Amino acid sequence: MKNVIFYTNQFFGQIGGEDKAYTEPQFHEGPVGNANAFTEKLEDAQIIATIICGDNYYVENMDKVKAFIKEKLEDLNFDLLIAGPAFNAGRFGIACGDVCSFIKKEFNIEAITGLYEENPAVEMYKKDIYILKVAKSAAGIRKAVPLMAGFANKLLKGEKPGSPKEEQYYAKGKRINVFKEKNGAQRALDMLVKRLKNEPFETELEISLYEKVEPAPPLKDLSKAKIALCTTGGIVPFGNPDHIPAATAKIYRMYDISGKEGLKEGEFESVHAGYDPVYANKDPNRVAPLDALRSLEREGVIGSVYKYFTVTTGNSTSVADATRMGTEIAQRLLDDGVDGVILTST
Amino acid sequence: MNLELRKIHIRDVVFSNINRIENDTLFLNSRDLVELVMEDKRVKNVHFDIAKPGESVRIFPVKDVIEPRAKLDGEVFPGVFREQMDEAGKGITYVLSGCAVVTTGPIVGFQEGLIDMSGPGVQYSIFSKLINIVMTITKEDYVDPHEHEETVRLAGLKIASYIGKIGIGYETYEAECYEWENIGHKYSEYSELPKVVYIYNCMSQGLLHDTYFYGRDTKLLTPMIITPLEVMDGAVVSGNCVSPGSKTTTYHHLNNAVIKECMKRHGKEINFMGVVLNPLMVTLKEKYRNCMLAVRNAEMLGAEGVVVSQEGFGNPTTDLMLICQKLENKDIKTVIITNEDAGSDGMSESLPDSVTEAVAIVSTGNSNATVMLPKMDIVIGNMKDIEKTTGGNVESIQDDGRILVEIHGIMGSHNLQGNTFLSAETI
User: Fold this and answer.
1) Residue A225 class from Cβ within 10 Å (0-12 exposed, 13-18 middle, 19+ buried)?
2) B243/A316 Cβ within 8 A
3) Catalytic site includes residue B177
């Protein structure tokens, strides 16, 4: 027999309506309120406790409520938490999403809820937890309970959940590798033939559109500007002391270049797997032109060259890692009073 | 144009003092093979091993994989060795299927990969299911990286065609017959079927990023119409290009999965009008030029639908997207094949470039995903180099001998001609 914890609000927990929205969290043994609708649908599992909290209290005291939940559940042996469903209710939706993702992170136990697609909590929490697709209002409870309970049963039995479409949950946006029955070329031709017949087809990857980076306004006075040299071309001190990988780098490094007139062959080299490195190794300035920056510095065209040179390998690095590294680098440069950056790629 | 492929199904490969095939077993005299490779003075030494499916063997760092082939009259891989060359794609070609020549030896660059002959790595590589004739080649000290790559590439092709010739005259084979008519004939023969063109992207970007067409570096070519049959005869040869997972080896070119599928459906579901070979160049200007010309060539062939295959990732994604956008804007329905770099947790956006017109995509998997591969009894090559190659890093080799790699690092794992069963889904 598996054990399930249930979370609900003042209304579905049968404490009261909006006037009870400041109810502090309560812990009850066994199912209370709409938890009862789930008990008979769960297979070989029981609801051992119900947590009820007023919606206003939750959203205004999120950390307090979570501390309460942690304390109550710490010594309990449970396998799953079910929250809601919260339909299109804003505060209740956030409470459900927040409780579930807290349980997932804190206890590493699966936690599910049910929300309407326009509930803002869907976007906030879908990447962390399973959120099942339910109707806009509580009138949809009859459909929501079997859907959520059915999915709960699958998780409790340790079965691998089907696709978001099959199970009717909001995709977490996580890409996982799978092996198909047909190879890629066969699938490509299947898809093309469908398109040529004007039949419905399904792409295997939805395209994402990226935010366009607006160029910063031009520097007013270059002759006073501190310019930093950055590259994704994988130019590192010879021997690659910090082991920056040839591809999929998740790290960047900053190297002191003060006193250096340029990047010399034998002192620096390329470790980037995405281009022919022979010419870069012969003259690393070809990828990271420190020599040119130094002459501009001498001529007074630019004020100075920032003391550190920043490098990573931009090769198969995920957009998420690239964004994180870019943010960190930019912050460091801002902190050090850098005015402009020459960023080279390969 | 007619081509007959005589496929001999090799069931075993053994070293012997003769070179012949008997009862589908290939006997090889490794001394002859060594002598042949040593003709190139740039080679310091070479030796051969045989690695069979199921064995506790890991091969690394692999540069190229080549299927042994030979022509009854003429030369396979035309334009590579001799000045005079035969037009590929006609006549009779012997294929030793079920086996392959694998080139390995000290690392050239960062682009070489891994083949496991047993364990969980097997499901990621078509090469794990072949009997591999592995050539470990070491260059003379004075040989620079570009010549190193060339030395290994030519040695692989030489050995593959030498072994292919052993098949000539062997009588147990399966014949596959292909014909390729001129465009006018094709147009009228299946005028009721939708006309499909294949745009065949190939890397053309320098050391370990090159492709050769009749021996010519494809950097020197603009997009051109070629026949699928000449591809089967070795007109397109790998310059050991690109990261292991997305590498189009010579084996992949010879057995191009998109061509195979188009030929299979020709005259039934589609009218396969032809192939456009498109070099993927370094600079944006060259990308714009080549993508424009590739699309124009497809248009000239009357394309109503196009499949675009890919090689590499990152900047080539721009070529892929440009081609897709231009085709869709001309009302030509397009399916593109790509891998994904969705991060090791799968939570990142998958591609470094995108256009809204790319509505039909086949994914060959998230190459950033990692896999733990068990320790093998035998390593042919040198595992230490994994630290420097795509898919590996300084933490790849575990204390107990296991290897943690991104599937990037496995040869052909997410082959962008779709010669893999790997894909990815969103959960």
Assistant:
1) middle
2) yes
3) no
